Amino acid sequence: MTNPPGSRLLLTRRGFLGVSVGALATVALASCAPAATWVQPDGTAVKDAERRRGGTGKVTTATLAAAPLVLDLAGKTAATWAFGSTPAPVIRLGAGDTLKATVRNQLEADTSVHWHGLALRNDMDGVPPVTQQPIKAGASFDYEFIAPDPGTHWFHPHVGVQLDRGLYGALIVEDPNEPLAYDDEWVIILDDWLDGVTATPDQVLEELSAGMGDMGGMDDMFMRMGNTLMGATSDLLGGDAGDVYYPLYLINGKPVDDPTQFTGKPGNRVRLRIINAGSDTAFRLAVGGHGLTITHTDGFPVTPVEVDSILIGMGERYDATITLGDGAFPLIAQAEGKRARGFAVIRTGAAAAAPAADVSIPELTSSRVGTAQLLAADSRVALSSRQPDRSIAIALTGGMADYDWGIDGRRFDLTQPLNAAHEIREGERVRLTITNDTEMWHPFHLHGHTYQHQGDGPRKDTSIILPKQTLTVDFDADNPGLWIAHCHNIYHGETGMMTVIGYRQ
After folding, report:
1. What does the alpha-carbon distance between residue 204 and residue 200 come to, in Å, rounded to a whole number?
2. What is the reported pTM?
3. Which CATH superfamily is domain 39-178 in?
4. pLDDT tens sequence across 3-44
């Protein structure tokens, strides 16, 4: 295929896989460096690391069938892709247990599953073309790995923009020595939704990839242009809140007009496991008439903090506890800066009238907003004091005008995924400094590791980085392989804001 003179080549993961699947093993895993110099996903070092994890010997099995599905979204039908339902049924296992998950691809496209937040073995991370070949249409793949750390995690595809469909679910790894006391637990998955309603994610990607050009003079305008949302702004996010128009915002797969119902008893303490599965939307979550106590972020415990709401970027997870009042209360996931919301109802009294979906609650306007900057890692999970052996600095670059999102001014090249990869070696303490040189916020995600925010901050794997700000984190290089680091705005990552942090032998 040749491109017209002067055209800009946009090599998406979808396009790459469509023309190059047969060459994946040699092109992707070897890339431009001799294969022997990089720790390969199926190499001895990865297998040795898995053996050192030991594990409990207990095995949890699951089958995920990726297939077309028509959803009923309060009277709107939406043709999408899902693992039987949206979200998929929760997968639960204990820390140290082994998960054996068979993924059957019943789609007409390649797919994969990434187990977001787990420091698992590299060849099970689910990232074509870096860690595996894609699961081809009609084929299946068996994921098998030890889940090393307890926490709230989730799973989703890592092919193209499939995340913006219904292919996701929660993965809960239980702590066998759980110190947190609570009476009940609710898994809450937030999502921005357009698939099958206004467009497909691939259509949105094509529209965005054309770029927005010079939009000067429109900063104060809030309007929809096709699948693009202009003028969505948030002080909490440092300006531009997001650029994709979504007609619906879901909580556990249900829109505002058919809200999810949570039931409990007055006085009970409930653990909320909150996951942002959205693709372009940060949510500010609050419960009317209730405060929230943040206990974990991205699976790891923090010193508890009392807040009225929590700001959650794409890919982030927060655990919080509430003590239930008597009545019916709104649980609102405000689409930050987008003038819309997800909505659910908490009911502890059968006779209580349900709140209106557009109810105003003071918790959403309170200054007590939970963010990572407020949090400190619990002493049980804080990294040991140690000077870094290696420092890596990366810059998030690009913008909406040309839709040229990248890292260090370079767009990720799927034909050479190890080109400009950042090398580390097993046993090192690594300091990673990420500078956001763009005019928009980015949720930055590192695969295969958890890092700690500098200054005794929280342990995380996904962090909001505001425009023109820098985040410095430390992590231990204790999980060999080739690991993706990228923006978890799926449209930013897919068009180039991605890199590899790889172990050298």
Report:
1. 6
2. 0.93
3. Cupredoxins -  blue copper proteins (2.60.40.420)
4. 333 333 334 444 444 433 333 443 344 344 444 599 999 999
